[in-house]
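Design job #97: recover the sequence.
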């Protein structure tokens, strides 16, 4: 019984993570995409809906993380506004962004600046299909990332 109580206490102390799909649009068309994202898709979460989700979790008064996903979240026309909004949230501990990395060069300076306010983690989802489309993608990502200091964690 004591082990179950410890497990519940540990589970209660974990930081909650919100997974938010910003769009079903993607700049690539990986044939095995589990999100069914494609270049011709055009569904975007509105900024008002996004704010409502974040405000709801702020009202719970518990620390949380946000993971922005898609499609390709960097394609959302209000991506910058959304990240700026998140950077202002006191309870937000970490912002995680999942990207195929193709557009990261356009946003790397902005994301680095945002990381001075909140912890930002970029997760790159690179697969054989993307590398067939652009064999230099991994080396380009490495060059872009080397521009900024990376924390040990």
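Job complete. Output follows.
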């Amino acid at each position: 019984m004591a082990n179950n109580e410890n497990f519940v206490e540990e589970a209660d102390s974990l930081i909650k993570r919100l997974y938010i799909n910003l769009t079903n649009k993607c700049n690539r068309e990986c044939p095995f995409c589990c999100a069914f994202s494609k270049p011709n898709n055009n569904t975007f979460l509105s900024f008002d809906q996004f704010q409502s989700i974040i405000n709801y979790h702020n009202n719970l008064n518990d620390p949380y993380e946000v993971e922005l996903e898609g499609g390709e979240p960097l394609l959302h026309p209000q991506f910058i506004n959304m990240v700026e909004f998140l950077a202002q949230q006191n309870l937000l501990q970490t912002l995680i962004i999942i990207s195929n990395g193709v557009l990261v060069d356009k946003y790397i300076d902005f994301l680095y600046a945002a990381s001075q306010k909140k912890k930002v983690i970029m997760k790159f989802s690179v697969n054989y299909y993307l590398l067939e489309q652009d064999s230099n993608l991994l080396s380009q990502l490495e060059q872009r990332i080397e521009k900024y200091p990376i924390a040990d964690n």
